Fold this protein.
Amino acid sequence: MHFSVSQHQVWQTLFDRQIRLLDKHGSSLFWDGFERIRFSPTRVPSIKSLNQKLQPATGWQTTRTSIRYSTADQWYPQFARRRFPVTTYIRTMDELDFTPEPDVFHDTFGHLAFFMLPEFTAFAELFAPAYLQAKDPEIKANIQRLAWFSYEFGVLIEQGKPKAFGAGLVSSFGELTKVVTGHTQLVPFSIENVLAKNKAVYSMHDTLFFFESLAEVKTTINSYLTSVSSAIESKER
Ligand SMILES: [Fe+2]
């Protein structure tokens, strides 16, 4: 996949600005993964260079997709195979602040540092089996919502301060600034709270959910996924 000079400049501009914001407001998990993946500050990374780092670290790989916004039914079979699809689309200089559709900056810079961390991939790997096993559209929607408000937009509290955990915060200047300046309502991440909330795809969030550790959110989500998968199994017996 070829990116033009101006597209690499978009990457560089986003990268510089986001690093400055994350210096203060990035979670320690993000920085831990970021130091391991070592993105180029000036160029959109190639799939090959990403896979050379991801594969030995956690067994995950990226694949290039031209689909602009994958549905969960397209997404989770890839996830189940430890494949993370990365779009070919990149925002333009006029859309630096917020892109409603995830672009290559979101998919790589936002997500992939975390995929260098075995404790994170153990968490990410909970979702696909439960989603693929579920038949009930409501359960599928609930699983997507738990994913959305954790690895896409979850807020990690460290030393009493909100830090970027979800990829949508890591990669979006606007969403993260809104959170750290107190303009987003932060509510504890619980199954009840999250399942009552609709996700905002085409606008910024007025409410997001926080947790104090990866272990905490993993336990919360796992308890829900285990309860729905044992309900499915007992129905099938
Ligand atoms: Fe994402």
Summary: The longest strand covers residues 61-65. The pocket of fe (ii) ion is lined by residues 102, 106, 110-111, 152, 167 (CB under 6 Å). The mean pLDDT is 92. The chain has one domain: 5-236.
